[in-house]
Amino acid sequence: MLMLPELVDDLIAEILLRVKPGEPACLVRASLVCKPWRRLISDPTFRRRYRAFHRARLRIVCDAIEWRQIVS
Predict the structure, then answer these.
(1) Disulfide: which of 2, 42, 65, 72 matches 7 by Cβ 3.0-4.6 Å?
(2) In three state form, how does the secondary structure of the chain look?
(3) Residue-range domain boundaries for the chain
(4) Which residues are CB-neighbours of 30 under 8 A, at least 6 positions away?
C-alpha cells in the first residue's frame, strides 16, 4: 500500500503528465514550484511517459480523422 507522500507524488505526476505538449512553458513553470517537482519533470522516466502518453492520444485523434474520411 502506498504511503500518503508517495500517493501525492503519483497524483502530481499524473496531473503533470496531462499538460499539453504544445505548452512547454507550463512544464517549465511547474518545475520551478519546488525541488521535488523539478526532479520529477526532469526525470527521464517521466519524460518517456510524457512522450508516450501524448503520442498515444495523438494516434487516437489521427485514427478518428481517418475514420471520418473513410465514412464520408
Answers:
(1) 2
(2) CCCHHHHHHHHHHHHHHCCCCCCHHHHHHHHCCCHHHHHHHHCHHHHHHHHHHHHHHHHHHHHHHHHHHHHC
(3) 4-71
(4) 16, 19, 37, 41
Torsion angle, alpha carbons of 16, 19, 25, 28, to 10:
10
Closest CA to 37 of 65, 13, 68, 1: 13
For the purposes of burial, counting CB atoms within 10 Å of the CB of 41, is it exposed (0-12), middle (13-18) or buried (19 or more)? Answer: buried
Using alpha carbons, list the distances in angstroms from residue 33 to 1, 9, 70.
28, 14, 46
Please, which pLDDT band fits residue 67 given cuts at 50, 70 and 90?
A: very low
The pLDDT of residue 38: 93
